């Protein structure tokens, strides 16, 4: 299946315009301070390329078209949610306030804490991605990186009393793969006590880079 590169560029342009306007309206930097405060709504990750459920090779035109279509839909849905979201009556919105740090390249970074006791890490605030990830082992590899990977902080699960592997049947695993996640060692659909961990996933960005566990 062939698709026009002009349509792709047009779609990317639309998405970029949406998020440019979103970021402009959400982020303000005080003149007398090096940090600013924004409000970030939290929601589960719903759009990820699941290598277990996709039969098309990553270099195929159909795979690239479906991937672009999926990410475009996710971006538009996120923009609509941020613009029109209203808290339901009788419920407390899952909103936090935190500081962001402006960078010389025009972006922002944000400090997040994980684990018990907390381990602090700095992340790029990327409005074009619904995934937040960080290295958690010494096997981390960064292909074609222009930074020193030895300076990248690594989360150490053994130092956290609350860290644990997520099972394949866990609702949190479905946040990544959706409700139809395939658990190869759990053939029965009603087998909730399956010991298989959540499958590895792959996420491919617009520039061709990928992240995977």
Automatic annotation (TrEMBL):
Record key words, sorted: Hydrolase, Protease, Signal
Signal peptide as annotated in the record: 1-25
Pfam families reported for this sequence: TAXi_N
InterPro entries given in the database record: Aspartic_peptidase_AS, PEPTIDASE_A1, Peptidase_aspartic_dom_sf, Plant_Aspart_Prot_A1, TAXi_N
Transmembrane parts of this sequence: none
GO process terms (BP): proteolysis
Name by which UniProt lists this protein: Peptidase A1 domain-containing protein
Organism, as annotated: Arachis hypogaea
């Amino acid at each position: 299946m062939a698709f026009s590169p002009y349509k792709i560029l047009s779609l990317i342009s639309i998405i970029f315009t949406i998020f440019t306007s979103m970021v402009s309206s959400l982020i303000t930097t005080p003149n007398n301070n090096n940090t600013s405060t924004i409000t970030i709504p939290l929601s589960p990750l719903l759009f990820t390329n699941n290598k277990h459920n996709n039969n098309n090779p990553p270099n195929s035109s159909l795979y690239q078209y479906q991937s672009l279509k999926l990410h475009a839909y996710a971006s538009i849905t996120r923009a609509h949610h941020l613009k029109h979201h209203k808290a339901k009556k009788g419920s407390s919105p899952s909103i936090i306030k935190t500081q962001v740090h402006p960078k010389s390249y025009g972006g922002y970074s944000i400090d997040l804490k994980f684990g018990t006791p907390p381990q602090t890490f700095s992340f790029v605030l990327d409005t074009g991605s619904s995934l937040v990830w960080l290295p958690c082992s010494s096997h981390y590899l960064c292909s074609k990186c222009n930074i020193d990977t030895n300076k990248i902080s690594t989360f150490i699960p053994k130092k956290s009393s609350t860290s644990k592997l997520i099972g394949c049947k866990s609702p949190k695993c479905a946040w990544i793969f959706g409700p139809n996640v395939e658990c190869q060692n759990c053939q029965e659909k009603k087998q909730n006590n399956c010991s298989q961990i959540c499958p590895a996933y792959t996420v491919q960005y617009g520039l061709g880079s990928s992240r995977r566990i």
